[in-house]
Amino acid sequence: MVKTGARANALASMLAAAGHRQAEQKLPAPRLPDLAANLAEHIKDHLEALGGDRDAAARLRPGSWDLALDGGLLVELDEELHFNRYRGQILQAPWASALPWTKPYLEYCNLEEERCLAAAKWGQRWTNPSCERMFGVASQPGDFDDGGAPRWKQRALYDAIKDAFALSQSEHRLARVSVHDIVDGTTLEQVLRTPTPERGVAVARLVASRVA
């Protein structure tokens, strides 16, 4: 399986071939205070719905953006670990309905959870001590009863914070693309395994269709 970093690098090179340059300065990852007040409250609601304590929301710290391009465009490349019931639960919230990736992502959450399980039902991809301090003790790997997968819950909330950031300001725009998306009749994952400059335009069109 291609590592996420390799796929992100391949995506960056193909977008560069289509004329998108990487920004000189990286934008810091968003935190709850960066969100509009109503959206920050929604994130706390989701945290609570997933079994966490809403007072712990300040400890949610998403990682850096996958790509930051000139013109204020941020691009997130979502691999198989991002598509499961917890992400789907959040994407069903009314505030997320207008995001251009919500509809296809809900389908992927329903159809591709088995791939998420295959990649992330073991070790720290399922749970870790810091996630359990936030969401409680995990179930056995692959079992969604009781505690479920705390690390999956954390990842879903991190994605939601970045989504909410895109809706909270106008200086930066966000596009999300998935390894499950179709480009020129094949999955984006396959395109990124064997990237070619010629396909850069098609990949750029996909990104452009997902800008919020």
> Percent range for helical residues?
40-55%
Our Rg estimate from Cα atoms comes to 17 Å
Structural class designation: mainly alpha
Number of helical regions: 10
Q: SSE order, as H and E?
A: HHEEHHHHHHEEEHH
Please outline the major beta sheet: 3 strands, mixed
The strand line-up of the biggest sheet is 1-2-3
Spatial shape? globular
Count every beta strand, where a strand is a DSSP E run of 2 or more residues: 5
**Could you report the average pLDDT, rounded to the nearest whole number?**
95
Distance between the termini: 30 Å
Low-confidence stretches: none
Strand content: 5-15%
Question: Keywords, please?
Answer:
two-stranded antiparallel sheet, 5 strands, about 45% helix, 3-stranded mixed sheet, mainly alpha, about 210 residues
Structure notes:
Helix content is 46%, strand content 9%. It has helices spanning 4-17, 37-49, 85-91, 102-111, 113-120, 123-126, 129-135, 150-168, 188-193, 200-209, and strands at 67-69, 73-78, 173-178, 182-183, 186-187.
What's the structural blueprint in terms of helices and strands?
Blueprint (H helix, E strand, L loop, with lengths): L3 H14 L19 H13 L17 E3 L3 E6 L6 H7 L10 H10 L1 H8 L2 H4 L2 H7 L14 H19 L4 E6 L3 E2 L2 E2 H6 L6 H10 L3
Parallel strand pairs: 2-3
Antiparallel strand pairs: 1-2, 4-5
Entry summary:
It contains 10 helices and 5 strands, in the order ααββααααααβββαα. The longest helix has 19 residues. The protein is globular.
